[in-house]
Amino acid sequence: MPFKENHIWVADIGEASVKIIQAKRKSDDTLEIVRTFRKKSLTKDAFFSAPRKEDFEVLADCLTDYRRGDQITILLKDPAVIIEPFMIKAVSEQSLEDIVYWKMKKLSAETQKKWHYDYVAGQRLEVFEQLGLEERHFDVVGIYAEKELIKTCQKLFKAGDYRVTKIIPQFLGLGKILEKQGIKNALLVDLGSSQVTIYQYYEGVLRHQAKLAIDPSRSHEENLANISNSIENQIRLYQDKRERERSQLYLIGGGALNPGVRNYFMDHEKWELADLCQLIKEDLWNHQDLAQESVSLFFTAMAGLLV
Q1: CA pseudo-torsion sign 42, 48, 52, 56
Q2: Residue 109: phi, psi to the nearest 5?
């Protein structure tokens, strides 16, 4: 019987659809994308409420090639996970953990038993040349997820005998891909069907996240202008004064494919949009058949393959 390679599956649970990527790791350590799936009928409601019979069937249709030993990663954002980036001066590992958990417990008004807490941290050295000083800081991202929602999400996979290997917040993969490609200062704008999430990264670490609702009563151009103003605010408020270069701006998500979106940012707002395809160079992925539109749509899932 021929040997069956273990595959890696990533499910990106979006507002309007679920995107699933099937990939395998090659001998040169690159990831080859085998297939991509986008299921509009399988929305986040199927994961965070009571799944229906048809939801199980749609998921089974995507995972027909699943074998025991394959890895499945689920990417989460609202409502299942909430993140809070902040910065503190460098301390011992134990003190860092104590500070992080204290801050996170203050953030949640819910009973502590309902939430699962975790964090990621990256150390950063700041040099003040004129003063002859240097300081070490931790860029920290607190993560807390509602346990019941996580269980419901897992239930959909367990019913089909699919073993979930990881459940992670979306921002982790996005930061990893920026870090691997040496992108120092970046803004990723995830355009969903009813919400826009703006992620600001520095050296692969999430500095700030902003959320913006898309107002259905406003015109398409008014909503885009609101998004552009919010991006400007992120740079003004959260970009370090010593980081003078303008952040590279990437548009991701299904909303980035809507007519006129890219032209609005480039022509009307004079933004220089970075090429998303440059982030998925061949040293990471084998993706000859992946169209540019698919890159925008599946970018978050592709980034999740790296975590």
Answers
A1: positive
A2: -90, -10
User: Using an 8 Å Cβ cutoff, are 64 and 173 in contact?
Assistant: no
Same domain, 35 and 127: no
- Ordered alpha helix ranges (H), 195-291: 220-238, 261-263
Q: Please state whether 57 falls in left (phi above 0), alpha (psi between -120 and 50) or beta.
A: alpha
- Is the pLDDT assigned to residue 293 strictly greater than 50? yes
pTM: 0.80
Domain boundary among 144, 166, 190: 144
Q: pLDDT (tens digit, 9 = 90+) per residue, 34-43?
A: 888 988 877 7
Comparing CA positions, the residue from 66, 74, 57, 85 lying closest to residue 207 is: 85
Average of per-residue pLDDT across 23-30: 82
User: What is the DSSP track for 244-263?
Assistant: -SPPEEEEESGGGGSTTHHH
Show which of 122, 144, 166 is a domain's final residue: 144
Among the listed residues 7, 8, 101, the one whose alpha carbon sits nearest the alpha carbon of residue 307: 8
Q: Which of 18, 24, 31, 15 is nearest to 176 (CA)?
A: 31
Q: Which amino acid is at 109?
A: A
Contacts of 93 (CB under 8 A, 6+ apart): none
Which CATH number is 168's domain given?
3.30.420.40
The C-alpha torsion from 258 through 74 and 174 to 101, rounded to 10°, is 130
Residue type, 26: K
